[in-house]
TrEMBL record:
Keywords: Isomerase, Pyridoxal phosphate. Residues 11-230 form the Alanine racemase N-terminal domain. One of its GO terms (cellular component) is cytosol. This is Predicted amino acid racemase. It holds the Pfam family Ala_racemase_N. Coiled coil: none annotated. SUPFAM superfamilies: PLP-binding barrel (SSF51419). GO terms for molecular function: alanine racemase activity; pyridoxal phosphate binding. Its cofactor is pyridoxal 5'-phosphate. It comes from the Bacteria.
Length: 362
């Protein structure tokens, strides 16, 4: 039995700072500026502090309260608002964000008028939807017209660049074709406005493999990276390995509250689970099953957890419980023992936000 409290998220700050510096160096060598994204760890002050100590000059989040926190900790850090602004939050936006991603003329007009009244200036990056179908101008002509509008009609806005998002909704992989289109659109805009754009922002962590494989189209000079700094989960889905990065910056520990040998298939008429899903269960006989005191409310989809004990299998769970099959483990687990996991992005996002997950820095 180990000493709690549990469930617990162990955060190795030395490894975190190493990952931050490694990512910055790899991208810098390619001529790419990185905005470190803190929303994946809920903008925890200790995480922000480690970014600053590691030398990151640009930080980003979709949550304005997190950007405010950054500015209070170090006003010199350049802050980027990642979510298209709500009209109702523009007053707060211009106080805490140096730059924001935008895709609506009406919002840009309101933002410029507000900045004029407040005697402020604000940077904007216009988003270009290249097929992932989340945010951004979809038609090239609309994007170009918006850029010219900001440059010529919005004196209190500075057109910092254009950008795109790939992978977060439509699961579209960044490649030379779609990022090449972004660069082409940027060049057209530069010709129209008579100057170079500061940033051509080529996406987020899903664009990192192009940097590592040296296939990133020349011209992309900005990325918004969080997951790729915190975790190595993207290597499960993309054809690359980033061996200079630590994959165990974050370790989740859950305490065993029950161990029993039970059937592997539920008994009775199967309907839906607590979340309205209809899982499919495989009957592999009776198994030794451990119940952990943490669930979807704390960590999201627990089947995405990666047990450090490779002979353990996460079977599922509910809002407050996680079920693991320990039959094949060489360790003789007992009540009160803990099981450790590395994480995927969903798990980190939820665990860092949960007040029920204790955070310990090592």
């Amino acid at each position: 039995m180990t000493k709690g409290p549990y469930p617990r998220l162990l955060i190795d700050t030395k490894k975190l700072q190493s990952n931050i510096q490694t990512m910055m160096k790899v991208c810098q060598d390619y001529g790419i500026v990185v905005s470190g994204v803190v929303k994946g760890t809920n903008g925890i002050p200790e995480i922000i502090e480690n970014f600053i100590q590691a030398g990151m000059k640009h930080l980003a989040s979709s949550r304005l309260c997190q950007l405010e926190r950054i500015k209070k900790m170090d006003s010199s850090v350049h802050t980027l608002a990642l979510r298209i602004p709500m009209l109702s939050e523009l007053d707060e936006l211009i106080e805490v964000a140096d730059c924001s991603l935008n895709s609506e003329i009406e919002t840009l007009t309101a933002l410029n008028e507000l900045c004029q009244r407040k005697n402020k200036h604000h940077e904007v990056v216009l988003m270009n939807d290249l097929g992932d179908l989340r945010e951004g101008f979809f038609e090239q002509e609309e994007l170009i017209q918006a850029a010219v509008y900001v440059e010529n009609k919005c004196p209190n806005l500075y057109l910092k660049g254009i950008g795109t998002n790939l992978g977060c909704y439509g699961s579209i992989e960044p490649d030379q074709e779609n990022l090449g289109q972004l660069i082409e659109n940027a060049r057209i805009i530069e010709e129209q406005i008579g100057r170079s754009l500061d940033w051509i922002s080529g996406g987020a962590t899903t664009s990192v493999p192009l940097v590592l494989n040296k296939t990133m189209p020349k011209g992309i000079n900005h990325l918004r990276i969080g997951d790729g700094i915190y975790l190595r989960d993207m290597e499960l889905y993309f054809d690359y390995h980033f061996d200079q990065m630590y994959g165990d910056v974050f370790i989740l520990e859950g305490e065993i509250i029950e161990i029993h040998n039970k059937p592997s298939h539920p008994i009775g008429t199967i309907s839906v689970d607590a979340f309205g899903n209809r899982p499919v269960y495989e009957d592999i006989g009776r198994r030794d099953r451990a119940l952990l005191a943490m669930g979807r409310q704390d960590i999201g989809d627990m089947t995405k957890l990666i047990p450090i004990d490779q002979n353990i299998v996460v079977k599922g769970g509910s809002s407050d419980h996680t079920i693991v099959d320990i039959t094949e483990s060489e360790k003789n687990y007992k009540l009160g023992d803990t099981i450790k996991f590395t994480l995927q992005y969903e798990n980190l996002l939820l665990a860092s936000s949960s007040e029920y997950i204790y955070k310990q820095y090592i």
